[in-house]
């Protein structure tokens, strides 16, 4: 109940009560309830209600988006939600199915574990939701603009009407992309009546993140059964932690869910689905499944294949490691091999149908990732264009990986207990996913460092494995009070990191970033020595107190477990400090030279077009730059198509297939490349700068434009435009014309 009130409070920050109620009603009865029925019918076991509802929610999401895409070509998008009706009717009318759906759980969650799980799930949701509520509401302040989120809203608008999906901000450009989240969002909008802005920006991300976090607990429970603290710890590590940063004045890559689930809603869905696939995959490999489990696994795999491009390759690698390891035990993992074949076929189908054989610039470039993240800019010496300082890349890689390894220190246990878990195909499967996630990040490169999503997709599984590794050590204590040592170690690790950062900060020579004028480096090692040393001190103190209290366990095992848990606790420090220091966001003054996003009056003009035009009407605009700066025009201008839910002749051209191909061939920044069809842009812009009857007739007859959205803050708009077109809506910074 406390978690529910937190969610409602956060949702109410920028969304209306009607939208919140409508979304909750649809998620409860149109997604979670029928999905839970399918989950219970497919699964032979009843573990606990948290798992049932979380897995059922994502099963419902998967079925809804697949049904939506099946009926969209028939023009039945508004009725895709009706898939739930036959499921509910059959579950009620068939006695055997009704008994299976209403059967009691086998291992109910204890009250303490339930509170820990709720608290752990609240951390990432609060971290994202509270911060979003401290910035202006979407599309109300021109200084607060997220082009990437407007991009996702524009694609969701296309998903409401277009088959196949288009880039609506650039008429005629087909969108080859992992767009299943946009189909799901469009289906939710049709079914619930909630506006796309609320679904994309304010409340749509919350149920997905909550279900994904709860599934991390379920996955951890599979590999650390019966633990009350391992699942909540895994949620916390994946949700807000996972990285230890020893440098007070430098940010190492933070790979927790908090850092990308809002800004990458496709990852929010993909992260939940890979956790569900990992959960079912563990059961399939262990032989704890029914025929329905195999069917459900394939169905969710199809949904995941277009939700995030990284999901299916990681799952295939997990099964591949199972096949490889089982060979050494003279066993043939036939089930894993069959699933590799099925998943391979699904992924190849997605490459053709969803991604249109486009790689989006993905290329094999080992280790280049560390020239784009971490402390590389602070330690690299000047080199030529297109070259890298390889020594600086190694430093960046070592420090980044050290921070990630300490934050998920339970993984260290797995390297020393291979004889134990090599015999468990479920554990091997999870380790394979984790290795593939890290390997994909290290071996590839993509514009915008999107190769990071290989690792990010694996983060829930990595966190579950890390918590399970810590549980293995604590389990050896065989002490009923071991949870006290766990709590002391986690809190001690956070305190030790705070102390280490304070010490380093008090000695600037040790913490100053890093390259001296004479080319030598300083301050790289000492912060880590302080951090690791104080974490080890925590382990020693916890071990001594534990033995003084005459508790069970060998001192070496206690110390090892305490150090591992302290490292995982250390990764939670900075996010919790950040949450504690959230303040109202102060935005810089807006200037004419640097337009960012729409004002509230421009938003109203776009909504007027949405409410007074037909879905097939085409708009032209003079607005192409999301931001103007010294380097030129940032072409990620998407909010007109997002808010009008209509196609625009030429708005922006970022994040298109053509731009991705140009970036792959030229290596230039994707956000500043000029539009490749100069004639089309010239015809478009001339209608606003120097309109004539012939100019506007060309737009109407050649391109099919019906409406003009003029933004005087972008370029000068001729006063003669009203002579040749009908002014239908006027605001200080937005004019809407209808062409005759």
Automatic annotation (TrEMBL):
The keyword Ribosomal protein does not apply. The keyword Protein transport does not apply. The chain crosses the membrane at residues 25-42, 54-74, 80-97, 109-129, 199-217, 229-247, 294-327, 333-355, 391-414, 426-443, 458-477, 484-504, 524-546, 558-580. It comes from the Bacteria. Keywords: Membrane, Transmembrane, Transmembrane helix. This is 4-amino-4-deoxy-L-arabinose transferase-like glycosyltransferase. It comes from Kribbella caucasensis. The lineage of its organism: Bacteria, Bacillati, Actinomycetota, Actinomycetes, Propionibacteriales.
